[in-house]
Design a protein that fits this description.
The protein is of the alpha+beta class. The chain has 12 helices and 13 strands. Strands 1, 2, 9, 10, 11 and 13 form a 6-stranded mixed sheet that branches. The chain has a 5-stranded mixed sheet with strand order 3-4-6-5-7, with helices on both faces. A two-stranded antiparallel sheet has the order 8-12.
Length: about 425
């Protein structure tokens, strides 16, 4: 599977797990800061975990192992066409995804730019040691990082200013931007948009709980009702008025949960981390179904058989120093065609890991002698999986070639 599509699949699986855990276990909880921490952690894990290789790292140059396996795979006829068709479809899906994501990202940049345009447009004043930008009319109030915008009709409402001050002091705009980037990254997944909405609502719950007291409960809720017709200039701002007014008032009047409820977070967070770890490693363990397999009789033979092929690999295969220093590892699948005379041609990488490992695998194939072709076919193409893995073993003396590449220990296995 295409690397980008595989990454997106893993991200969306983890995002879905995070959202379901939140809705089923935490959505009725009144520990709003813990809810915030859970969602921020969930987004970070969803985006970062699929990029991390949790395999064993190398401790010395001699710990690098490269091998060819598990078997040569024939690609010809209808099978070859099917693989090509899958590749084309995957490329089109990536192009479609990137196009929509680029449009959404551009739209976000425009909205962020509009904030700075408002800073230059409106005059500012200081109220209760807060720098406010005063807008004409009764459009309400909103904030973005250190900027607080208040309309003239609400400049004397302490509840409004205090509410926006909570958003500024606790850097709620960071949460908002993270939710925006998540919805862009996973724009095709409704769950990502639902999680985005939950994050917005929770930020309002936090600000409400900090500003509202027993003495001003009624006055504060009346301030909310007075702004129900307000339309924020941009939805991604932290704004005093939001569409989920009924949910906010209901949460204000809800009885506070005891500290015992925090046990839920002690269970939910490790559970999500464990599931994310499983999801991020699932793809490496799953077989690549886009590659065609063949019986031993259909595979072209290396001169002298597999024993000689192993000797050839041991003499020519190396682990690039550049790849080792960058901690790069994985399976490079090289497709090569064997002509009627047994010569190797048209070698290309059909599954990439990194430029250095790809180049090393292609260099290996280019050194191959003539093969024994199949008599029933004029030419045939085979896939050669070359696995580069960093593993821990006994320290050994470092050997350098003239070109800077270090020979690798070679292990060859076949089905």
């Amino acid at each position: 599977m295409n690397g980008i599509l595989l990454y997106l699949l893993e991200v969306n699986v983890i995002v879905t797990v995070v959202y379901l855990a939140y809705r089923l276990v935490l959505s009725r909880d009144t520990h709003f800061q813990w809810r915030r921490a859970f969602m921020l952690t969930g987004i970070t894990v969803a985006v970062v975990f699929p990029l991390i290789d949790f395999g064993t790292t190398a401790e010395s140059v001699s710990n690098r192992i490269a091998y060819v396996g598990p078997a040569l795979q024939v690609v010809h006829g209808a099978v070859s066409n099917a693989v090509d068709n899958v590749t084309i479809v995957q490329s089109l899906l990536v192009a479609l995804y990137a196009s929509v994501a680029a449009v959404l990202l551009l739209y976000l940049v425009v909205r962020v730019g509009s904030v700075f345009a408002l800073v230059r447009r409106y005059d500012d004043m200081t109220v209760a040691d807060r720098r406010l930008f005063v807008m004409p009319g009764n459009s309400g109030a909103f904030s973005f990082f250190g900027f607080i915008f208040v309309s003239e009709g609400f400049i004397d409402d302490d509840n409004v200013i205090s509410h926006e001050a909570v958003h500024v002091d606790q850097l709620h705009s960071v949460d908002v931007l993270m939710s925006e980037f998540l919805s862009i990254l996973c724009w095709f997944n409704p769950v990502a948009w639902l999680l985005r909405g939950e994050m917005r609502d929770n930020l309002e719950y936090i600000a409400d709980s900090r500003v509202m007291t027993r003495d001003n409960r009624r006055q504060y809720q009346m301030s909310l009702l007075a702004m129900t017709d307000n339309q924020a200039i941009a939805k991604f701002y932290n704004n005093f008025n939001v569409s989920s007014l009924k949910k906010r008032i209901k949460m204000m009047n809800q009885k506070k949960k005891s500290s015992v409820a925090l046990v839920r977070y002690m269970i939910a967070i490790p559970a999500v981390l464990a599931l994310a770890f499983i999801c991020s490693n699932w793809a490496d363990a799953a077989p690549d179904t886009t590659e065609a397999s063949a019986t031993e009789e259909e595979v072209p033979q290396f001169p002298g058989g597999m024993v000689e092929f192993q000797k050839f690999m041991m003499m020519n295969l190396h682990y690039p120093a550049e790849a080792f220093e960058a901690n790069e590892q994985g399976t490079v699948v090289v497709q090569m065609c064997i002509n009627a005379d047994g010569s190797v041609c048209d070698a290309k990488v059909v599954k990439s890991v990194s430029p250095s490992l790809d180049a090393a695998a292609l260099e290996l194939i280019s050194k191959s002698p003539r093969w024994e072709p199949l008599k029933k076919s004029k030419s045939v193409c085979v896939n050669v999986p070359v696995v580069y893995k960093l593993s821990v073993s006994e320290p050994a003396e470092k050997e350098e070639k003239d070109d800077g590449a270090v020979p690798a220990t070679v292990a060859v296995r076949f089905k």
